[in-house]
Amino acid sequence: MKILGINGLNHDASISLIEDGEVLFAGHSERYSGIKNDSDLNNELMSDCYSYGRPDKIAYFERPYLKKLRQLKAGQYSEVLSTKNIPSNYLKQWIGDTPIEYVQHHQSHAAAGYYTSPYDEACIVVIDAIGEFETCTIWYANGSNFEKRLSIKYPNSLGLWYSAMTQRLGLKPQEDEYILMGMAGWGEVNPKIKNGIKRDFFKKSKLPLQMKHNLHRGCMWWNPKYYPDDGSDDWKFNIAANVQAVCEDEIYNVFNLAKTLVPETNNCVYMGGVALNCVANSMIAKELYPKLWILPNPGDAGSSLGSASYVYGKHINWTSPFTGYDIKGKYPTGQVLYELLNGNIVGIANGRAEYGPRALGNRSLIADPRGDDIKDKVNEIKHRQKFRPFAPSVLEEYAHEIFDMPVRKSQFMQFTAPCKFPDKYPAICHVDNTSRVQTVSKEDNPGYYNLIKRFYEETGCPMVLNTSLNIKGQPIVNSHQDGIEFSKKYGVKVY
């Protein structure tokens, strides 16, 4: 039976098609439309998916009428009264009369993580902005049994708070949270500011994530007396540093509670948009759960796979994040290596697109990590701020020699690690000398692995700088034609 999982009518629309436990296709709407975080499905995406066969069943990532109840509570009356946001109406043009099974938002997150994990039993933690009502859940999973042991509901939401602080710092909420995380490295954690932020937004409670305010509409009103907004970069950097510190404290409290609520296992699955905070992920892995699994697409886009796998009811054969649009052809090892050895920045658009927000070698912009000026050159191409970090893609067997890794493998770029030789590799080191590491093995991506290995043989450097093949505010390149257009527009060779 083919099951099509759908996340639509929501930011980061996506679809996933599975059959008998195999992922046939999983892709993002934004890669086809060119609209960042696109909420709508489109004909091109659906056509590519249906080339693998029509579904027998549709699994939708949330329960729409439960969501409308929350929208009613939040005063979003136009959304409540709208019939355009009813999935059965919206999806009819693509699915016809195929039956729809609705899966709750956090159930979709939990299933996406657990059914792709290597664990038969696991504690599952989901933290995001908001599902229908839930913002944080803790589960015990064993086989097809999901037992919910904690549910925190709107408006108590760490995700909404982090998005509100993103907006308060002049960034775009539900899109630029990762930029806030990068800014944090440029600031200093100050107990006065950190405790002040906690007092301003969080209640003292036995439960974590208990909020003083409903931050659904942001917190532009916030101007702390203990550290007033002077409009400077220093203010933004220092606020970001302390926001990140508070966020890590709250996440720690959630996972510490999880250990009490789910004593059966030390295996942990972590999902939801907040799981994209790779700095906090490293803290969890080092201090609480060394056996931590995070799907490379833990946010709402990953819920399409989650809803499909929940309906399937068993572990799926998760072997690779490369599940999207396929650019046919041999991996361009020779051409890319030539460009790197000549000091050039070069793009790769080859093979199937990554399922998730991070480029992992098939839709990447790469460079030599050793150059002092490389970071500025890449920032100029991508129109990025100076405080944004870059990731290294390192041969798995050399990762622990170069980085103080919190985990054995980080193949999906989900953890940060201090670099032991920041002066040697300045282009991939953040201002605090950490890196968001991607470990690469032959099993993960043979073409990309062989490229880095060849680069190592020629230079003695077992890694490359890796960032996504896109420009700030735009989706990652999807097709061969997208790669050609990128090359023409920004003067970077793309193979």
Account of the 3D structure:
The chain is of the alpha/beta class and 495 residues long. It has three domains: 2-106 and 307-312, ATPase, nucleotide binding domain (Nucleotidyltransferase, domain 5); 152-292, 2-Layer Sandwich (Nucleotidyltransferase, domain 5), CATH 3.30.420.40; 322-490, Carbamoyltransferase, C-terminal domain (DHBP synthase, Alpha-Beta Complex). The chain is built from 17 helices and 18 strands. The mean pLDDT is 95.
* Strand coverage percent: 15-25%
**What is the CATH superfamily of the largest domain?**
Carbamoyltransferase, C-terminal domain
In DSSP terms, counting alpha (H) and pi (I) runs of 4 or more, how many helices? 17
The backbone outline, from C-alpha atoms, is globular
Query: Which strand order spans the largest sheet, edge to edge or round the barrel?
Result: 12-14-18-15-17-16
Calculate the mean pLDDT score and round it: 95
Q: Count every beta strand, where a strand is a DSSP E run of 2 or more residues.
A: 18
User: Quaternary status of these chains?
Assistant: single chain
Rg from alpha-carbon coordinates: 22 Å
Give the helix level as a range of percent: 25-40%
What is the CATH top level name of the largest domain?
Alpha Beta
Spatial separation of the terminal alpha carbons: 37 Å
Taking the sheet with the most strands, its summary is: 6 strands, mixed
| Gross CATH architecture of the largest domain | Alpha-Beta Complex
Poorly predicted runs? none
- For the record, the count of structural domains works out to 3
Structural class: alpha/beta
**Annotated CATH topology of the largest domain:** DHBP synthase
